[in-house]
Specification:
This protein has helices at residues 2-17, 25-51, 57-67, 74-87, 89-115, 119-145, 151-157, 169-175, 178-211, 215-227, 250-260, 263-286. By secondary structure, the protein is mainly α.
Length: 303
């Protein structure tokens, strides 16, 4: 009897030592367990490394420059932080996943309730948000891994707003039909139009305060600033917008602005931009730092 029990137990152990059948549920579970174990080991390794004193020579040099009263650049500071950020990337990734999971839940629940989406549609919409998050995460990793990226590149790579779900419009339009589809399209267009008008009005007011626009310039530049707004798309119904309706990038927008201004107004705008940069440099010097490269790209507005 004892021999039978031992034999049966040995057979059980042997069967469990064999690899699971290809394509079986057991194989999927085994792969998942192995993957999780590897991730946990990798994370523990990163955490141990992060606790060590890994201050590079370059960071010590920057600290010495600060003590000596020399200005340093955010680009130099970011460069010294890249090795640490690479080590801590698993933790940053977990934080990102949690944050974006919350945003995906909020947006998915909102549209699911408003347009009566079924379970499959909700799952597809949430997966779209997750995929977008992974894409943005890759862009951030590319910045951290690059030897040539600077502080401004880091800021721009983290500017994505999860409340902005423009890219999901086509997916939603595939879910909806009839009145619901028209309601969704008109609602999204109204949101865009309101955003464009708000941005154009704000920038027009700022520009007017700098160069004192006349009434004709007001009308012309409202159109230019609308077409250069972040949310603008051709065919958008914006109050006060007439004539040419193609979208403008920042360079095109600024060229159109300067073409509309008189020479004396251009001088005022140039002086304002010089003063704006000088003020930014002054603020950075208070922190014993210089402006990063491509500083002007941090703000779409140059006035």
């Amino acid at each position: 009897m004892l021999g039978l029990v031992v034999g049966a137990f040995g057979g059980f152990l042997f069967s469990n030592s064999l690899p699971p059948e290809v394509g079986s549920v057991e194989e999927e579970l085994e792969l998942l367990r192995n993957s999780n174990a590897q991730n946990e080991r990798r994370l523990r390794s990163y955490q141990r490394n992060a606790r060590r004193d890994t201050t590079p020579d370059e960071l010590r040099r920057l600290a010495r420059d600060v003590r000596d009263g020399k200005d340093i650049s955010p680009d130099d500071l970011f460069a010294t932080m890249k090795p640490w950020m690479r080590q801590m990337s698993p933790i940053f990734e977990r934080m990102r996943e949690v944050n974006e999971e919350d945003w995906a839940d909020v947006r998915t629940s909102e549209w699911a309730r408003q347009y009566d989406l079924n379970a499959s549609q909700r799952a597809q919409l949430k997966e779209w948000f997750r995929a977008q998050g992974a894409e943005r995460a890759k862009a951030l990793v590319d910045v951290i891994e690059s030897k040539n990226s600077g502080f401004v590149d880091l800021i721009r790579a983290t500017e994505y707003d999860w409340k902005d779900a423009r890219g999901a419009d086509k997916l939603m339009e595939g879910f909806l039909k009839g009145d619901q589809l028209e309601e969704f399209k008109s609602g999204r267009l109204a949101e865009r139009a309101e955003s464009v008008q708000h941005e154009a009005d704000r920038n027009l007011s700022r520009l007017d305060g700098i160069v004192a626009l006349d009434s004709k310039q007001h009308e012309q530049l409202f159109g230019v600033l609308s077409r250069g707004a972040e949310d603008y798309q051709p065919g958008l119904n914006v109050d006060g917008l007439a004539g040419e309706n193609s979208a403008l990038d920042r360079g095109q927008r600024d060229a159109e602005i300067r073409a509309t201004l008189r020479p004396d107004q251009i001088e005022k705008l140039d002086e304002h931009q010089r003063n704006r940069r000088a003020e930014a440099e002054k603020e950075m010097r208070r922190m014993m730092m210089t402006l990063p490269k491509d500083w002007d790209l941090l703000d779409r507005d140059t006035f």
